[in-house]
Design brief:
single chain, 1319 residues, alpha+beta, eight-stranded mixed beta sheet, six-stranded mixed beta sheet, 55 strands
Length: 1319
C-alpha cells in the first residue's frame, strides 16, 4: 500500500490491528536519546527452534490472531482505526500467576506477606538487559496525532532496531491511542535484500507507579526492507495517560522493547532467484539426509588446489556404457554397476563449476556403494571427509598425483614421554588430516576459543605416584607426557567436538556452549614459524544429537566476501552471519517479566541456547591463500575428463528431452503372430518376445497405426485387427483385448497399477492380427487350398459380440512340451472343435511333427480323442467341452486354450498311477497337460542350509566367543555354495562363529529342486542324498527347521519319530511349510529350510524310554567350548545329565571337579539346577533341543567361596532397549563389596578390552513384592557397595551397548548403519 493510501485510510481495520506506522519520513522524526545502555551482546537464535509460548509466530508475519491470557491488564478495546496495515496481532496480556512460586510475596500471602506499593514502581525495574532498549519521551502530551518520535538504535547480534512511537496516536487512529512499533534499522553493510526471519519482539509501556500493570505485547515477525516495522496502534488510551500513572516526571512516557533474533541476517529470495546469476555458484541437491555431505563437498570444491587434484586423476576407461543406459537419473537401489568413485566425484565438481542449476549427487552416492537407506541416514561430516580422502589416496597410488592430498591436508604431531629424573625419552610421530578440538575440557570447564583448546590439546601431563612410567632399563620413573605439533598443513581442518558422551546420562549429547574462532589464526605459539592462517569455511550444525541440518559458510574468493551454501540455495551473507553468529552459547529470550509479583532487582533472565553453531572450521595458510583457492582450468588440467563430462551432459540433455517427449508420446512394442508361436510352456505375459518399438502420440487413433502397417508390409488395412495386452481384474488375468480403430492409444493405458505395465518405462504391447491366409512368417498372402476358395476376412468389421480371438496351444505328452500353435479367430456360435474339423490345428502341428519337435499323432483316429483346457490362472486349468460353442463355454477374445490328443490307454494309466514311489522322493507322472501344469506349479527351489549339531548357541546375534566388539560379516567365512545360488546375506553372527573355540563345521548351503507335494520324509531323504550323508540306523536322523536351530526357538517341522496320520487327516506337505518360512524375492517357490544331522540313530522302542538333551560346555570366561547331544531317561534327573556330561568332557577344557548345570532362558539364569531336579518340565525337553539347551560349567565357587559370600547372576543389558542379551555370568560377591571391585572382577573374568569396558556400567536393580511391586535401578559408582540401600529382590547387570541389535528393524535402521564408502 502506498503512503497516500495509508494516510487517506484505504483499508478498514479490525480491532487491535494496524499497519506500519510509516506516516512520516524517517528523517523527519526527531530522535530522542534513551537512558544509558549496558554493554551489547550477541543475541541470535536458530530459526528452526519454535517458540512454545508463541502460538502466533509466523516467519511471514501474515497470520494474525488475537490471544488474551487472564490477568490484570488495563486495556480498552476501541473502534478500529482506518487506513493502516502491518499491525501485529493483538497483544497477549500475561497472567500474573505465571511465574508465582512458593515463597514469593504476593497480595494473598496474608498480613505478614504484604508489600509496599513502592516496591513495584518504575525505579525498581531491573536494569536494561543486553537485548533490551529503553526509551523515555519527555513532554509526551505535547505531540499531535500523526507525529512520531524514534529512539536511538540498539544492536542485538547484527540486528539493529529502535522504537518508533506515536505518543498522540497515528493519524488513522484519530489520536485516541498511543501507538508503538519496533523498527529495524539495518546496518549499512547488509545486502539490500536483507531479511531477519522469525524475530521475537516485545513492546512495553511501563506504568510509573506499578510496573505490574504495564501494557506488554509481543509477537514474531520477519523484518525486511518491505516489512521494516511492526507493532500496535492501541497500546494505551491517550485520555488515560494522566490519571493512571502512565506519565512520570516531566510528563515522561517510558517504554521498553526487547528483541530475540533467532539467526543472523539472510536475504529474501524471490521466485525467480537464480544462484548462478546472483553469486556465480550453484548448490547441491539434498537426496534425503545428505546435507552433511553437501556442506563437505562444497568446502572441498572451493579449495581450488583440491579441485585440481581431483581433475588430474585419470579414471579407468570403462567405455561409454552410459549410452546404453537411457535412465534419466541414478537409482540407488537397482542392481546396476556402480560408477567409479573418482569419475563420479569429477562429474560433481565439473558440474558445480559449469552448470547453472543445482547438481545431483546420486551418481557419487552410488559410487560409494550407498542405497536409499544411506541417503536418509545422517552421518558425521568429518568422518566422511576422512573416508573420502583415504579412498582418493588409494586411487592415486603409483600415479603422478600420488601424495598430493597429503601435501595439502596432512600435518604432523609428536607424542612424547620424557623422564624427569633420568635421561630417557620416548617419541612417536603421527600424521593427521584434522585436529579434533575439545570445547569442554576433561575437567568439565568450557573452553573459550581455539587458542585455549589447542593449549589444552598440547597440555603436558606429569606421570607420578601410582601412575609412574615404566622406562626401559630404568624401571618406574616420573615423566612428562604430552603432544607437540611439528608442522601444520597448508589447509588446516579443525573439528569442534560438539558431540560429547555424557557419563551421567550415559548417552551422547550436543554441547552448545560458546566457542570463539578468529578470522586470522596465529599458530606460531604451537609451532615456531607456523605462520598465520585465514578462515576459509565454517560448516554449521543446526539441531541436536539426534537430528539436525548441516550448511556451510565459505569464502571462495578473498575479494568477494562470504557465501552461504545450504543444499540447493547459495546466497551472500555477512561476516557476522558466517562467524560470530556460529560461536554458540545462549541468548536472552523475550519474556514478560513485568507481570512478576516478586522483586525483580535480583531476578535471573531467561535464556535460550543457540543450537546452530560451528562444527568444522577450515583455515588456509595466509601466504598460500590465493594460490590454494585459485580455480583450475578443467581443460588445461584434464582434457579427457572434460570431454567425458561434456559427453555425459549432452546425453543427460537427450534423456531429459526423451522424458519430456514421453509425456506426450508412448512406446509401442509391436508383435505379430510369429512372436507368440515362439513361446513355450504355460502362459506368462512377461515372456512375450519384445517386438518392434515405435512411438505414437497418446492422442493418436489406433487406425493411424493400421495405416502405417498397411503401407510398410503391403497389407490391406481391412485385413488388420489390433489387440492390446491388458489386465482383467475378474478373474485376474493378463490377456490380449481387441482395440477398436477409432480408440486412442491413451485409452489403452491402464488407469491403475497393472502387473504388465511399468509406469517408470511405459510401453504398450500391441498384437497385429492378420486375416486367415497370410503367412505367419513372411506376412504375405499364401492361403491354403481351403482358404483360397474365399476372399480374405475383413477384420476391420470386427465385432466383439460375434467373433472371438484365441491363443491356441498344444501339449505333447510324449515329449512333455507345451507349444503355441498361433492365433485363431472364429464366430461365437461355432463349436470349439471347429478348428480341429477344419484342419487348422493339424496344419499348424504338421511342421513341428516333421521337424521331430513333437511326437506324431496315432495313425488310427479312434486311438485318441481331442481334449481342450483353458489356462484360467497360473496354476489352474479348466476343461472345456469341445462340442459346445465358444459362447456356451464362456470364452472371450484373448483367452488361452490348450489342445491335447489324449490316447485312450493313457486315461486308464492315469487312473491307476497317481505317483511313482522311489527310494528318495515320489515322482508324479505327467499324462495330461493338467499334470504338466501341476508339476510346473509345484516345482520349487529350496535353499537348504545344513548345520552341525555342535554349532554354538547364538542368542540375539551374540555368540559366546569372548569377543565384545561389533561383529561384522566376513565374506571369507567358508560356506559351501552352489554357483547358481544367489549371493548369501551375511549375518553378524557368521563372523563371530568363525572365531569360536568350539569345534564344529560351518553351515553348508545348496539349492535343491523339490516338489511342494512332498512330505517331510521326502525332504529328509533328498537332503541326505544331496549332501552325501550316511543314513543312521532306525530313522532318517535329520531334523528340519524353518530357521537356524541354534539361533531361534523355532520348533522343528516334524517329530523325530513320525506318527502315522490319524484318520480323516492329511499329512503335512512342503506346500504347507512354504507359507510359514521366509521366502526370497517375495516368491512362494523359493524359500529356505535349515537341517541338522543328528549324531545318533535309534528305534521307536528306545525313544519311548530315552530322550535327547543338548548340553553346552562353557569355560571360566563364559565362552562356549563344546556341545554334545546325550540320551537320558525320559523320567530322569539332572544328575543323569551330569553323568553323561562328564563322559564328554575333554582334558583340554580344564573342567575337572564339580560341574554346575544352569538353565538359561532369554539371556537370564532361570535356575541353577540341583542334581535331584527332575528333567520333566525343563525347557531342555522341548523339541528344539539345540536352542533350549543346558549350560554346563565348572563350579569353581563350590570349594573357594566363603560362607558369607553369595553366588550372584550378573547379566548383560542393552543400554537403549533395557533388554537382557548375551550370556550371563555367575560371580561370588561379598556383602558390602564395592561396585568398582565387582566391575573389575567381571572385566577380568570376561576379558573385556579396556577401550570397550570403559563405557560399561554396573547397575543394581531392586524391588519389593506384591501386586504393587515397583523396581528401582541405580547406576553404581565405584565407591558404592553393590548391596547398599536395597530392599526386596536384588540383582546386578552390566549395562552397555548391544554389539548386534536383535531387532531386525533396529539392525537395519538408518540410525544404526555405520558410515562406509564401499567403492
Amino acid at each position: 500500500m502506498s503512503r497516500q493510501d495509508r494516510e487517506t485510510g484505504g483499508l478498514y481495520q479490525r480491532p487491535g490491528e494496524s499497519d506500519s506506522p510509516r506516516l512520516v519520513d524517517s528523517d523527519q522524526a526527531p530522535a530522542v536519546r534513551p537512558a544509558a545502555l549496558p554493554g551489547q551482546r550477541n543475541a541470535q537464535r536458530d530459526r528452526n527452534e519454535a517458540d512454545a509460548d508463541d502460538s502466533s509466530d509466523n516467519e511471514l508475519g501474515m497470520v494474525q490472531q488475537q490471544l488474551t491470557r487472564g490477568g490484570d491488564v488495563q486495556e480498552v478495546a476501541l473502534p478500529p482505526p482506518v487506513g493502516l496495515h502491518r499491525q501485529a496481532p493483538q497483544g497477549r496480556p500475561q497472567t500474573l500467576d505465571l511465574y508465582l512460586r512458593p515463597g514469593d510475596r504476593g497480595y494473598d500471602d496474608g498480613p505478614e506477606g504484604r508489600v509496599s506499593p513502592d516496591d513495584f514502581n518504575k525505579e525498581n525495574l531491573p536494569p536494561v538487559m543486553d537485548h533490551e532498549l529503553e526509551f523515555t519521551i519527555e513532554d509526551a502530551t505535547k505531540f499531535s496525532p500523526g507525529t512520531s518520535v524514534r529512539s536511538e538504535s540498539k544492536t542485538v547480534g547484527n540486528f539493529r532496531f529502535r522504537i518508533l512511537v506515536f505518543p498522540a496516536g497515528t493519524a488513522g487512529s484519530n489520536g485516541s491511542q498511543v501507538s508503538a512499533f519496533v523498527e529495524a534499522d539495518p546496518l549499512e553493510s547488509l545486502d539490500p535484500r536483507w531479511c531477519f526471519p522469525g524475530v521475537k519482539y516485545q513492546l512495553t509501556i511501563v506504568n510509573w507507579r506499578d510496573y505490574r500493570i504495564s501494557v506488554t505485547k509481543s509477537d514474531t515477525w520477519s523484518f525486511s526492507k518491505d516489512g521494516i516495522d511492526r507493532g500496535w496502534h492501541d497500546m494505551v488510551r491517550v485520555a488515560d495517560l494522566h490519571r493512571d500513572h502512565w506519565l512520570g516526571p516531566k510528563n515522561s512516557l517510558y517504554l521498553r522493547a526487547s528483541c530475540y533474533a533467532r539467526v543472523a541476517d539472510g536475504i529474501q529470495m524471490s521466485a525467480d532467484y537464480n544462484c548462478k546469476k546472483e553469486t556465480g555458484f550453484v548448490g547441491l541437491k539434498n537426496h534425503g539426509a545428505t546435507c552433511y555431505m553437501n556442506g563437505l563437498l562444497q568446502s572441498l570444491f572451493h579449495v581450488g588446489e583440491f579441485r585440481r587434484i581431483v581433475y588430474s586423476i585419470e579414471g579407468e576407461d570403462s567405455g561409454d556404457s552410459s549410452k546404453d543406459d537411457p535412465k534419466m537419473d541414478v537409482d540407488l537401489d537397482d542392481d546396476s554397476k556402480a560408477p567409479q568413485l573418482i569419475q563420479a566425484l569429477q562429474n560433481v565438481f565439473y558440474k558445480l563449476q559449469t552448470s547453472d542449476q543445482a547438481v545431483n549427487c546420486r551418481e557419487l552416492m552410488k559410487s560409494f556403494g550407498w542405497d536409499s537407506v544411506d541417503a536418509f541416514t545422517q552421518h558425521d561430516a568429518q568422518e566422511l571427509n576422512r573416508l573420502l580422502c583415504d579412498r582418493l589416496e588409494e586411487r592415486m597410488k603409483n600415479t603422478p598425483s600420488d601424495g598430493s592430498i597429503k601435501r595439502l591436508f596432512e600435518g604432523e604431531m609428536e607424542n612424547y614421554i620424557e623422564c624427569i629424573d633420568v635421561d630417557y625419552k620416548s617419541k612417536r610421530n603421527e600424521s593427521f588430516y584434522d585436529i579434533q578440538l575439545n570445547i569442554r575440557s576433561e575437567t568439565g570447564k568450557d573452553l573459550a576459543n581455539i587458542e585455549e583448546s589447542l593449549r589444552e590439546f598440547t597440555k603436558e601431563e606429569t606421570l607420578e605416584g601410582d601412575n609412574l612410567y615404566e622406562a626401559e632399563g630404568h624401571g618406574k620413573q616420573r615423566a612428562k607426557k604430552g603432544i607437540r605439533f611439528l608442522r601444520f598443513p597448508p589447509v588446516l581442518n579443525l573439528q569442534l567436538k560438539r558431540f560429547h558422551f555424557d557419563l551421567e546420562k550415559m548417552d551422547m549429547v550436543k554441547l552448545n556452549s560458546r566457542f570463539e574462532f578468529p578470522r586470522k589464526l596465529d599458530l606460531s605459539e604451537f609451532v615456531p614459524g607456523a605462520g598465520k592462517y585465514l578462515l576459509f569455511a565454517v560448516v554449521v550444525h543446526n539441531g541436536d544429537v539426534n537430528s539436525g541440518h548441516y550448511y556451510a559458510h565459505i569464502r571462495p574468493d578473498p575479494d568477494r566476501g562470504w557465501f552461504k551454501f545450504d543444499d540447493e540455495h547459495v546466497t551472500v551473507c555477512s561476516d557476522y552471519a558466517a562467524i560470530e553468529d556460529n560461536y554458540g552459547g545462549s541468548d536472552h529470550y523475550v519474556w514478560n517479566y513485568f507481570a512478576e509479583r516478586r522483586d525483580l532487582r535480583n531476578f535471573v533472565p531467561q535464556t535460550k541456547p543457540r543450537i546452530h553453531n560451528a562444527y568444522m572450521l577450515v583455515y588456509i595458510r595466509e601466504d598460500h591463500f590465493r594460490q590454494i583457492l585459485e580455480p583450475p582450468d578443467p581443460k588445461a588440467t584434464n582434457l579427457r575428463m572434460v570431454e567425458r563430462c561434456d559427453r555425459e551432459v549432452r546425453l543427460a540433455e537427450q534423456r531429459r528431452r526423451e522424458k519430456m517427449e514421453g509425456h506426450s508420446k508412448i512406446k509401442v512394442s509391436l508383435i505379430f503372430e510369429k512372436s507368440l508361436c515362439s513361446m513355450e510352456g504355460l502362459w506368462d505375459h512377461e515372456k512375450i518376445p519384445s517386438g518392434t518399438i515405435i512411438k505414437m502420440s497418446r492422442d493418436q487413433p489406433v487406425k493411424d497405426l493400421i495405416m502405417e502397417l498397411a503401407m510398410t508390409y503391403s497389407i490391406a488395412p481391412d485385413h488388420i485387427a489390433i489387440f492390446c495386452l491388458s489386465y482383467r481384474s475378474s478373474p485376474r488375468q493378463v490377456r490380449f483385448d481387441f482395440v477398436p480403430p477409432t480408440n486412442t492409444f491413451k485409452s489403452c493405458i491402464p488407469q491403475y497399477q497393472a502387473p504388465h505395465f511399468d509406469v517408470s518405462d511405459p510401453c504398450l504391447v500391441i498384437l497385429c492380427l492378420l486375416s486367415r491366409g497370410y503367412d505367419v512368417n513372411s506376412l504375405t498372402w499364401q492361403p491354403t487350398p481351403s482358404e483360397d476358395a474365399r476372399p480374405p476376412d475383413e477384420l476391420s468389421r470386427w465385432s466383439i459380440d460375434r467373433v472371438v480371438f484365441l491363443v491356441v496351444k498344444y501339449f505333447c505328452a510324449q515329449t512333455k512340451r507345451l507349444v503355441t500353435l498361433g492365433c485363431h479367430y472364429m464366430p461365437f456360435t461355432d463349436p470349439i472343435n471347429a478348428m480341429i474339423s477344419d484342419g487348422w490345428v493339424l496344419d499348424r502341428l504338421q511342421p513341428l511333427i516333421d521337424s521331430k519337435e513333437l511326437a506324431p499323432l496315432p495313425d488310427d483316429p479312434d486311438a485318441y480323442s481331442w481334449e481342450c483346457w483353458e489356462e484360467f490362472s497360473e496354476r489352474e486349468l479348466q476343461t472345456r467341452l469341445v462340442k459346445r460353442s465358444v459362447k456356451h463355454e464362456q470364452l472371450v477374445s484373448g483367452d488361452v486354450i490348450i489342445w491335447q490328443a489324449l490316447q485312450s490307454d493313457a486315461l486308464g494309466a492315469k487312473e491307476a498311477i497317481s505317483r511313482v514311489e522311489t527310494n528318495i522322493a515320489p515322482e508324479f507322472p505327467v499324462i495330461t497337460v493338467a499334470d504338466f501344469a501341476a508339476l510346473q506349479g509345484s516345482s520349487c527351489d529350496v535353499n537348504i542350509v545344513l548345520h552341525d549339531y555342535r554349532q554354538p548357541l547364538v542368542v540375539d546375534g551374540m555368540v559366546a566367543n569372548g569377543c565384545w566388539e561389533q561383529a561384522r560379516p566376513q565374506s571369507a567365512v567358508s560356506v559351501t555354495k552352489e554357483p547358481k545360488l544367489p549371493e548369501k546375506v551375511e549375518r553378524p553372527e557368521d563372523a563371530a562363529l568363525s572365531t569360536c573355540l568350539s569345534l564344529f563345521s560351518m553351515p553348508q548351503e545348496k539349492e535343491l529342486k523339490m516338489d511342494l507335494r512332498w512330505q517331510i520324509e521326502h525332504v529328509q531323504a533328498t537332503v541326505r542324498n544331496s549332501f552325501g550323508l550316511t543314513p543312521k540306523s532306525g530313522n532318517a536322523g535329520i531334523m528340519v527347521f524353518p530357521a537356524p536351530p541354534s539361533s531361534t526357538a523355532e520348533d522343528p517341522l516334524h517329530a523325530v519319530v513320525p506318527v502315522p496320520p490319524q484318520k480323516n487327516t492329511h499329512p503335512i506337505v512342503l506346500e504347507n511349510i512354504a507359507r510359514y518360512v521366509s521366502t526370497s524375492n517375495n516368491s512362494r517357490k523359493q524359500f529356505t529350510l535349515h537341517c541338522v544331522e543328528l549324531p545318533f540313530g535309534f528305534d521307536t522302542g528306545a525313544y519311548s524310554t530315552l530322550q535327547p538333551v543338548c548340553i553346552r560346555f562353557f569355560d571360566d570366561q563364559v565362552r562356549e567350548i563344546g556341545c554334545e547331544v546325550v540320551f537320558v531317561p525320559i523320567d530322569g534327573e539332572v544328575n543323569d545329565v551330569v553323568v553323561e556330561a562328564k563322559k564328554q568332557v575333554k582334558p583340554e577344557w580344564n573342567m575337572s571337579g564339580q560341574l554346575r548345570v544352569l538353565e538359561v532362558v532369554e539371556s537370564r539364569v532361570n535356575k541353577v539346577l540341583r542334581p535331584e531336579t527332575p528333567l520333566r518340565g525343563l525347557s531342555c525337553t522341548r523339541t528344539n533341543i539345540f536352542y533350549h539347551s543346558l549350560r554346563i560349567e565348572a563350579d569353581r565357587e563350590a570349594s573357594s567361596m566363603a560362607s558369607e559370600q553369595k553366588l550372584m547372576e550378573i547379566f548383560h543389558c542393552d543400554r537403549a532397549s533395557q533388554q537382557a542379551f548375551g550370556h550371563p555370568l555367575m560371580l561370588a560377591v561379598s556383602p558390602g563389596e564395592k561396585a568398582g571391585s565387582v566391575k573389575q572382577r567381571c572385566k577380568e573374568k570376561l576379558q573385556v578390552p579396556d577401550q570397550e569396558f570403559k563405557s560399561w556400567r554396573l547397575v543394581r536393580c531392586s524391588g519389593g513384592f506384591g501386586r504393587s511391586r515397583t523396581l528401582s535401578r541405580v547406576h553404581l559408582k565405584d565407591d558404592e557397595p553393590w548391596d547398599g540401600d536395597a530392599s526386596g529382590d536384588l540383582w546386578l547387570y552390566l549395562e552397555h551397548v548391544h554389539p548386534n541389535p536383535p531387532n531386525s528393524l533396529a539392525s537395519q535402521s538408518r540410525h544404526n548403519k555405520p558410515l562406509t564408502i564401499k567403492a
